[in-house]
Write a structure and sequence with these properties.
With 335 residues, the chain is of the alpha/beta class. The protein is 40% helix and 16% strand. The chain has helices spanning 11-22, 39-46, 65-75, 91-94, 96-116, 151-170, 192-201, 221-233, 269-280, 304-310, 318-333; strands at 2-6, 26-31, 55-59, 79-82, 121-127, 174-179, 182-183, 206-208, 215-216, 219-220, 256-261, 267-268, 286-288. The strands form four sheets. A seven-stranded parallel beta sheet has the order 3-2-1-4-5-6-11, with helices on both faces. The longest helix is centred in the first third of the chain and has 21 residues, at 96-116.
Amino acid sequence: MKILVTGAAGFIGMHASQILLARGDEVVGLDNLNDYYDVQLKLDRLARLTPHANFRFVKLDVADRDGMEKLFAEEKFDRVIHLAAQAGVRYSLVNPHAYVESNLAGFMNILEGCRHNKVQHLVYASSSSVYGGNTKMPFSESDSVDHPVSIYAATKKANELMAHTYSHLYGLPTTGLRFFTVYGPWGRPDMALFLFTKAILEGRPIDVFNHGKMKRDFTFVDDIVEGVIRTLDRVAEADPAYDANNPDPATSNVPFRVFNIGNNNPVELMAFVEAIEDAVGKKAEKNFMPLQDGDVPATYANTDALNAWTGFKPETPVPVGIGRFVEWYRNYYKV
């Protein structure tokens, strides 16, 4: 198939593109290479893809309406994996407009491109952050998610609503994937694992929020990508059991689906830090801090629906995944 992967120079985008290329798909990778974090890391990720004969890179911002219209019209993609977004809960407190431009205007351009060019299936990144103030654990796709606690989360919830509208109006099959705290080699420098590893190796203290009383459903990147590609291969369908009198937010009477992808095993932040200390071989000096605005104290994914739909359940143990990240970090930064 010919597949557009947006955010191809990103953490998940690079890994997904590698798997698609390895199995013989043609991949057009799009990224705007913005400087939200180290551009060199993005270029080095791209360098792992560009030698492949079936990969082409397009430098373009998803918010560029004319550029996106032209790309879709010329390329005639079979399917789309949309991962490009302005990421990060904390940055959304500082620069909310970036999230509107990338995550709302950009997503509209993706939907319009798919609609007008007969794309068979759109798979897009949502986020566990949509669960916001919910406290019922584990988080289920059938739960209401109407209480976001950050603009980032609100834009991801909006993406799901926009996707449903296009599935309803134009029959576009869409699948939204709520990622739960993704980590692993080539990860983002603004994520906890990267920040903690870097600080411990450099002998600097780490900031531990909510006094360490956080729980996260940390999910290894290989498991995330497996879930992305399995859902890409199973095109969203209308749910024959959908009841409009008792609507389930995760399905519909149109080709629309939403799934959690998480490890289904929340880990306390202090246990996560200990696993990093073990992998690095050095203890961390810790600054205990209050919960940050926009953050939630715990995440925990119910993955039954994903398993039923694709036969897949993420299960890489956190210490194994952290070990792989630390090994990559030491090699990449020659530490």
